[in-house]
Design a protein that fits this description.
Number of strands: 8
Strand content: over 45%
Mean pLDDT: 84
CATH topology: Porin
Number of domains: 1
CATH class: Mainly Beta
Radius of gyration: 22 Å
Strand order of the largest sheet: 1-2-3-4-5-6-7-8
Order of helices and strands: HEHHEEEEEEE
Shape: elongated
């Protein structure tokens, strides 16, 4: 009888250990990103169409985009939904929607909050996602608001360490915010407890 009781107790303990599931909800993570802002292609699409820009091979070259750096903060809401806050700075030639230009090579600061909806959890090596949010920009002393939406890929390099690549179209919703594409490539790693599960 004692042997049977001991076997039952050991089986129950082993079952409770095996029943604990690993959470793939993203830990608080910081990412440093290289960014490019592309105003020219967005202007061409607005004047023509996306199909026309692609057909005529008018997409901007890297040399026509404004480079910069951004920092992203990620926090998992669920295994398939993350919150992302971004602050980016770049040097760009910015023309307001009314076509007014303030000259070339000026400082643009943008900050936004987004929700990322992932096709797969962080368990997988490659995870595609969609993003949407709201943001504000400052160019010289002028403030604007925009809606960013886009798509990206998250590539798992190691446990809780990721490479992110993303394309966003940022739609200006105020007179002093112009439509543009934002391309980013960054490396993210957990903060705090080292990303331990």
């Amino acid at each position: 009888m004692r042997k049977i009781s001991l076997v039952v107790i050991i089986s129950m303990l082993a079952g409770s250990v095996n029943s604990q599931e690993i959470s793939y909800k993203k830990k608080p993570t910081l990412s440093v990103n290289f960014i490019l802002n592309d105003f020219r292609t967005a202007d061409l699409i607005r004047a023509n169409t996306l199909a026309g820009v692609l057909k005529n091979k008018q997409w901007s070259k890297f040399s026509e985009m404004g480079p910069g750096l951004a920092v992203n903060y990620y926090q998992g809401i669920t295994e398939y939904v993350d919150f992302m806050a971004t602050m980016g700075a770049s040097i760009v030639d910015y023309t307001f929607k009314n076509r007014q230009s303030l000259g070339s090579d000026n400082f643009l600061l943008e900050t936004d909050a987004n929700v990322l909806v992932k096709l797969l959890s962080d368990k997988y090596r490659v995870t595609p996602y969609l993003s949407a949010g709201a943001g504000v920009s400052m160019y010289k002393v002028y403030w604007g608001a925009y809606i960013p939406f886009g798509f990206g890929l998250q590539v798992k390099l190691a446990e809780n360490t990721f490479l992110h690549t993303q394309v966003q179209y940022r739609t200006g919703i105020t007179e002093l915010a112009n439509n543009h594409f934002n391309y980013s490539l960054g490396f993210g790693t957990p903060i705090g407890n080292g990303g331990k599960k």
